[in-house]
Specification:
The structure is a single chain. The protein has 10 helices and 19 strands. It is of the alpha+beta class. It has 2 domains: about 50-160, 3-layer Sandwich (Rieske Iron-sulfur Protein); about 175-395, Naphthalene 1,2-dioxygenase Alpha Subunit, Chain A, domain 1. Strands 2-11-10-5-4-3-6 form a 7-stranded antiparallel β-sheet, with no helix packed on it. The relative contact order is 0.17. It binds FE2/S2 (inorganic) cluster and fe (ii) ion (FE2). FE2/S2 (inorganic) cluster binds near residues 93, 95, 110 and 113.
Length: about 400
Amino acid sequence: MDMPLRSLPDPLDDYPWPAAENEVPKEVFSREDIYQRELVRLFAGPVWHVAAHRAELPKRNDFKTTWIANTPILVIQGADGVVRAFHNACSHRGVMLETRRRGHAKEFECPYHRWLFDDQGRLRACPAEKDFIPGFDKADNGLAQVRCEEFLGLVFVTLNAATPPLREYLKGLEPGLETVLMGDGDCQLLGYHKTIIDANWKLYRDNDGYHTPLLHKAFTWLNWQGGKGSQIITEHGHMAVTADLKPLSDTGVLNDPSLLEFKAAIRAGGEGPQAKTAVIVVSPGTLISKALDLPIIRYALPKGVDRTEIHWTFIAHRNDDPEMLQHRIRQANMMGPSAMISLEDAAVFNRAQKATATQPPNTQFVKGYRPGMNLAEAGQNDEVGNLAWWDLYRRQMGFERGVE
Ligand code: FES
Ligand SMILES: [Fe+2]
């Protein structure tokens, strides 16, 4: 007897999100089914992701590979100067096409059956094509293209047709991005570090202004807590924390205080974007910061529910003189896998990951929080600024808030 097909109810449809708007369930960092829903609703949802900066593919025919969660992406600057993004998979039997992190190529050849694609993702040649299925047309078998738009050299991609235009998505974040990308975004690549953190990607993106000078000794040298600054929260959950850093002249630790010099600010007489500092979270998972003279793009790439790869991308301005380039490279020693700040972050995120099954079941955001407040009004050193994104996340994931 034929049984009618029916779909099983998804237990996540009735997920009990806490009633208190300043609480987040710990298990969102560790439940596999929640991660699987994120892949569909968030990473493949109506969201832009930072895939690259033009500094990483500065010349025509340069390319970079990356991931949107579990989807490999190939970003190419075509011979025509246009940056395009594709699913990084051969259109024949789905083999990943390019495995190098970056490079320069006019063509991309799949190793399996040697299909050949050009810099615009078009299929150019396939061995034994005369024996193919009748009507096979190379023009219909190029790489699957991904929507791609740029702002200040940042290359954003989205897997979803319903994602709003990029400028609308970034609304309110433009001044912060100008600060971290040194005004015009005309950048050159200094190099990469990679950190692998045994923690959920959301613990990494949940950067808050509260912990900055408390966890990170290096930020006290920069006089973060005592500096003037602000926190801007946008409609799409992006966050920009600005700071007016005044590095200590004597840290009691550094033999050479010039490591902490804010050279661009001194040269500019304290004026203009190069004289400012900011830490930005571009939702969902990219941090872009400029502390003193050190601009960094940090791509937080989820590799499962409890593992995140951070690709630290160090950049400089294209017009930097040799002295400034050396200075930025020296300051890179404050960050990255062997430096203080990322070690400390990785350690606490891993400890949070290990404790997701503990009581009480929810984490709480209290610094700067007042019930009924406008969540977008956070002070520089508050953690309440994170809640606007968490509310967006809750809605994107289809979780109803409980009733108090
Ligand atoms: S899978 Fe790429 S050519 Fe066959
Ligand atoms: Fe941190």
